[in-house]
Amino acid sequence: RELQAKKEAEEMERLRLEKLEQRRQELLEALPEEPEAGSEGVITIALRFGDGSRDQRRFVAEETSVNELLNWVDATHGMEREKIELSTMNGSKTFVYVEEDDDDEQEESGNVTLDEAGLGKMTALRVTEIVQEVDNGEEEEEDESDSTDE
After folding, report:
1. So what's the pLDDT on residue 133?
2. What whole-number distance in Å separates Cα of residue 45 and Cα of residue 86?
3. What is the spatial distance between Cα 111 and Cα 127, in angstroms, rounded to a whole number?
4. How many CB atoms lie under 10 A from the CB of residue 98?
5. What CA–CA distance (Å, rounded) separates 71 from 80?
């Protein structure tokens, strides 16, 4: 019975990853063309990742939402947008992906534009993985340790 449950979980994860790959392809195709440096209303976003790597890209501040930044990170860096947060280097502002119909988090909403979020012409953002619920992580670790004991 446990083996069946494990197989079902593996199949569900495989399907989830397949959908994620398809979504990333769509996000990549939907990414707006990068505007010229120095153009009116253009903002440069520099990302810093936990492993020390970096990336940067230009966006039109009034037309680009924070969700679109998170889509860019998801599509180009393979980090699920729902599992990361972007924060300014001093930590004064934090942004998370917000589903389009979710209006609960107005301040941190991914639906605000870069302009509305108050980001400057050159903004550095730290990309941090959001720690999953404790029970999820423990279950996965337990499953792995069980399979090695057999």
Report:
1. 57
2. 11
3. 18
4. 21
5. 8
- Residue 101 has what pLDDT? 60
Six-digit token string for 11: 């199949």
User: The tokens 């505007």 sit on which residue?
Assistant: 35
Average pLDDT of the chain, as a whole number? 83
Question: Residue type for 96, please?
Answer: V
**8 A C-beta contact, residue 87 and residue 51:** no
Tokens encoding 36: 């010229």
* Comparison of pLDDT for 9 and 140, the residue scoring more: 9
Compute the distance between CA of residue 79 and CA of residue 129 in angstroms, rounded to an integer. Answer: 8
Q: Which residue type sits at 123?
A: T
pLDDT digits (tens, 9 = 90+) for 53-95: 999 999 999 999 999 999 999 999 999 999 999 999 999 999 9
**H/E run at residue 141:** helix 134-149
Strands 42-49 and 54-60, sheet pairing: antiparallel
Q: Which residues contact 34 (CB under 8 A, 6 or more apart)?
A: 57, 58, 59
Residue pair 77/55 in contact by the 8 Å Cβ criterion: yes
Phi, psi dihedrals of residue 55, rounded to the nearest 5°? -155, 160
